[in-house]
Structure formats: structure tokens, C-alpha cells
Amino acid sequence: MMFRYTLIILLISLSPNLIGQNCNQFHKNKECKVQNSKGFKNFGQSRSAVVEAGKTYSYQVVLFGGYDYKIGVCTEIGYTPIHIKITNTADKSVLYDNLDDDYTETVGFANYNTKNVIFEITLLASDMEFRDVGDNRVCLGVAIYWRRIPKLGVKDDEE
Amino acid sequence: MKKKLFYETLFCLILFSMFMSTHSGCKCNRDEKKIVQEQIQTEKADSSPFSSMVFLLPAPSEVMLIVKNYNIKYNANLVAPLGLEKKLVVSNHQALIMGIYLTDFSYNLLFKNYNSGFNSLNSIKTLSKNMGLSVILDEPFLKRVESNINNIDSIDTIFNEFLLNSFSSIESSGNYDILSLIAMGSGIESIYIGYNSLNFNASDSLLVSNMLDQKIIFENYYKNFVNYNYNKPEMDLLINDLNNIYMLYEQSVTFKPFNKHGNTTKVKEIPILNKKHLKQLGDSIEIVRNNIIDLNY
Prior knowledge:
Chain A is mainly beta.
């Protein structure tokens, strides 16, 4: 009797159909964490979302001038690689495309002038086969960290 | 007994087959309510002028930090009067004023006016309760804030965490339009403080830099707001006024081609400040901010 009830409870708890998926705070996952983030703080524009694999999602982000940024993008197991492209909204120039970088999921850069950029993100999920409606919907996390660019150059000695 | 065993086994098999169907290649099914909410969201967004884009918004404390980086001085007269929350009934008004108070809280903390900051928080708490968001701004959170009120770094972290959690909660309940109103209130208060803290005797290059920063920040708040409110007649007046601000930001700093030494291959653009439009911009920001406080939208 105990075994039967245990089996029922186990099947219920393992079935996402019955529980539903929640991507809230997904970007706080350890997979979204970036290396060497000492001195960096969480940026308010970090986000999590439910997305469909194969579709491109565009996010416009304000990057403040005078700050270093590190960005980590993550998704659930099996849905990589993730294509990330960052373009400047002002002149449409491509600032970064991880297509040329082996689809790496983290990127860091210094930004000297405040600008709006667009993150275009696509879950390529190249090893997946989707057989049912909803199979291709998955969590996406975009974790952004920032810190003030340190003052550079030699300081004068104070007497 | 055998019949009971048969039905129990059948029940287990049904559950098992449901489990297997969700793992046929991948998982990721969501409950129906979320799917419907997102479909509605997509349909609305498809008709807005900026529908293909999701605009991410900086936290009020981050915007205030950027404003402060221009070495501005604190001005208590720029902070909105507290107590407005007591007379607010309409949810749109509540959300806009909430946004204003959130920015004022950040502004006060940045300049170490902890008592004023804490007073703002009490108003935010009342508004949250009236808007049904009190589960987010609960007593344990307030106690954490109170015990860290003198430590700007800790309170900044706590407050940003609170903002992200509360915005996520509002988002996940599908109330994107309320969130856009809170964000717009915050955005307006940010540019109001930013503009009125400007030193107009400073060099044109500094003013240009400041204006360009404000314009870029405002653009995201503005387009995000339009995305979620473009089809609401009651928001037409506010959208029109915000559009006016957006156009004046565009006109305050224009770009002129600069071709050094007649070089035909390299043409640089230099920003030019238009002081007439800059003055009009300040007036427009003041009008919108006062209209929000006077509950005219």
C-alpha cells in the first residue's frame, strides 16, 4: 500500500504538466553566473523570461557610460547553443556577435558612452527534436553585472 | 480486492504516461493560464509602434547614481510631497505615484538623507498595500531596511533586490501595464530631478553629455510605456505629453557633420546644444511631473 502511494506521489512530483513551469529569477541560476565578477554588482536590467527555441528575442538595454559590464546568458539543459548579438541602436553597428566566438555564453566589455543597445538572443537548440506543442518553450536568463571603470593612470603623490 | 488493484494500477499507468509525454525529447510545458497571458501580451504588443522589442528598464537607484555622477547637489525641494498615497483610489494614479516615490527614496539614500528616505518607504508601503502588493513589502523587509538604513551599499542591494522581486511578481501575474505605469512614474521623477539639478552655467559639452544620457534613459521608459498603454484612451493625454518630452530631447541636442581639413572620407558628427529647446524640455518635464502629482492623468 505504502509503495503504491509513494509511486503516485513520485509521479505527481516529477510531472511538469501538473506543476507548471516558473522562470522567475532564472537569471540567478549558477549557469548564468560570470567568471571573475569580483567588484561587479547586479544590474537592474537583468531578466528572466519564457521563450521559444528557434525564435529571436530582442531586448533594448541602457548601458551607462563609464562602466564595465559582464553579461551571462543561460537556458535549460539541452537548448544550447545560444546565439547572442549586441547592436548599437544609434547606428545599427554590431558590437558583438558570439557566432564568431564559438557561441560563448558570457561576454565582458567596457562602455565609455551611455547608449541603448539591443540584445538579440536565439536559443538554437540544435540537438533537440520538438514533437509536441509547448516542447520548445523554455526558461531564458540574462544576467548583467556592472562596475565603475576604475580611474586609470598614475596618481600624484600628496605631500 | 482484485478490482481495487486493477483500478490503482490503471491510475498509476495514466500518471506514468503523462509523465513520459512531458519528457519526449524535452520538457517545458507551462500551465494554460500563463500561455494565455503571454498570447494576449504578444497580440497587444504586435500592434504597438515598438512591438518587436522588449525594453528593459534600469532600477531607480541606478538612474539616480548616473545623475549624481554629474556632481549634482541635493535639493529637498525636488522631492515629491509625501502623503499623496492617502487620497489615491484609482490604480493608475497609485502606480504613477509609487514610481515617483521609488525614485525619491533612491535620491534620498544616495545623498544620505536616511530619515527622509525612510519616510518615503512608509508611503511606498501604504501604496503597496492599497495596490495589493503588500506581500512583497512586508515587515521583515522593512526591518532589514531599518537596520541597514545607514549603510548605503547594503541598503542599495536590499532595495534593488526588493524592486526586482516585486517587479518579477507583478510581471508573473500578468500586470505589465501597472508595471509600466510604476516605471513611467519613476522615469519622470528621474528626469525631473536630473534636469532641475543641471548647472546651466556649465560648459556646453557637459550639458550635452548630460542631456544625451537623460534622453537615452528616457527613451526606454517612454517606449516601454507606449508598448503597454498605446490602446488605452485614458492614457492618450499622458502618452501625448511624453511624446512631446521625447521630441524635445531629440531637438535639444542635434548633430552637425564636421569635416576636418576638407577630408572627404572621414566625416565626424559633433553634438550641438539647442538652448531654446532645452528650456522647453524643462518646462514640459515640469508640466508632466506636476500633472502626475495633481492626478490629472
